[in-house]
Structures are given as structure tokens and as C-alpha cells.
From TrEMBL:
The keyword Zinc does not apply. It comes from Micromonospora marina. One of its GO terms (cellular component) is plasma membrane. It is an enzyme of class 3 (hydrolase). This is Lipoprotein signal peptidase. Belongs to the peptidase A8 family. Pathway: Protein modification; lipoprotein biosynthesis (signal peptide cleavage). The chain crosses the membrane at residues 82-100, 107-123, 153-174. The active site is at 139, 158.
Length: 200
């Protein structure tokens, strides 16, 4: 006899409660896509933008300009480049731990974007100049300003990270859990017996 899915499970959107294997597969697929897209655009930027002035597109809303960043946004922490790979390894470990209970496809997309973005920039830190663990990240996209003074120059790995985090915040705010359940439904199920006792 097959056990019924847990109350509040995300069956309609994830297909039979988003089993762990399917969710983890989606996480890995999204992370691989984000990583390959990031690596490809970085190589394209190095080939096409090296030694060139910023290229304006969309009427100046977006500029393509090649920069190498030793720190985070706006070069924060540029004197302590070595700490960013350590942070990334911690993030990867956290995602691996989260995957142990992962049943939700939306959460798989969120974690996959974060993982792919983190790996994209980690590879720069590990293997690009000036050396291992202190490599500079290749950035190439700037909004509204060709030199990144209005908004920091970024890459697709940064975009994946931001989108993944925003999606995670949305999922938390809407009560979606990583195991496929919905927090508000669980609360309603817990409150139902008390209401029934009051009406008896």
C-alpha cells in the first residue's frame, strides 16, 4: 500500500511531490547550464573585448567592457582575494547539505543558479592570473555606465547568483519548503483539530 504524500506537498507544480532524484537532477542541470554559459561568455569577452573601448548596446542601457576584479562588487575586499574561494567552498557545502532533503523543483532551480554562479567565479579565483586562489574574476557587463561607476561591472555568474538568491527569498516568503511542502498548509493542518474540538 502506497503512503499518501505529506500534507501541503507541492504535487501540482512539481509532479508527484518532486522526488529527491528529480529535484537533485534539476539542481545539477541548472548549475551546469549556468556554469557553461558563464565560462563561454568570459572566453568570448576575452577574445572580443581585450584592448577595446566599451561597446554600447540598447542605446547605452548596457555596455560590454572587459574588467578583471580581484574583489567583490565595487572591488570590495580586493586586498583579501584569498577569502572568496573559502566562502565559495562553504556555499557549495551548504548546498550539498540542502540537497539531502531537496524535493522541491523551484528550490532546485534556486540552488542550481547559486551553485553554477559560485562555481563560475570560483574557477576564476583558482586558475586565472595572477595565481591560484588569488585569481581575478573576468567581468564584462555594465549598466548605464561604461566604467562601472553607477553599477558594478558583472558577469553571468553574478547574475545567476543574484537570481538564485532572489528566488530563494521569494520561496521562503511564500512558505515553500525544500522538501516540497508548504509551511502555511502545515500550520492549517495543525490548527484544524483544535478548531474541530472547539466546535464539538
Amino acid at each position: 500500500m502506497t503512503a499518501a504524500p505529506p500534507a501541503g506537498s507541492d504535487t501540482t507544480e512539481s509532479g508527484a511531490g518532486a522526488p529527491r532524484r528529480k529535484a537533485v537532477g534539476l539542481l545539477l542541470g541548472v548549475s551546469l547550464f549556468a556554469l557553461l554559459a558563464d565560462l563561454g561568455t568570459k572566453q568570448l569577452a576575452l577574445a572580443e573585448l581585450t584592448g577595446r573601448e566599451p561597446v554600447s548596446v540598447l542605446g547605452g542601457a548596457v555596455y560590454f567592457t572587459l574588467t578583471r576584479n580581484s574583489g567583490a562588487a565595487w572591488s570590495i575586499g580586493s586586498d583579501h582575494t584569498w577569502i572568496f574561494p573559502i566562502i565559495t567552498f562553504l556555499v557549495i557545502g551548504w548546498i550539498a547539505w540542502m540537497a539531502l532533503r531537496l524535493r522541491s523543483l523551484p528550490w532546485a532551480v534556486s540552488l542550481g543558479l547559486v551553485l553554477g554562479g559560485a562555481l563560475g567565479n570560483l574557477l576564476d579565483r583558482l586558475f586565472r592570473a595572477p595565481g591560484h586562489f588569488v585569481g581575478h574574476v573576468v567581468d564584462m557587463i555594465s549598466l548605464f555606465d561604461p566604467y562601472g561607476q553607477v553599477w558594478p561591472v558583472f558577469n553571468l555568474a553574478d547574475s545567476a547568483l543574484v537570481c538564485g538568491v532572489v528566488l530563494a527569498v521569494f520561496l521562503e516568503l511564500t512558505g515553500r519548503q525544500r522538501d516540497g511542502s508548504r509551511l502555511r498548509d502545515e500550520k492549517r493542518d495543525d490548527a484544524a483539530p483544535a478548531e474541530q474540538r472547539e466546535s464539538a
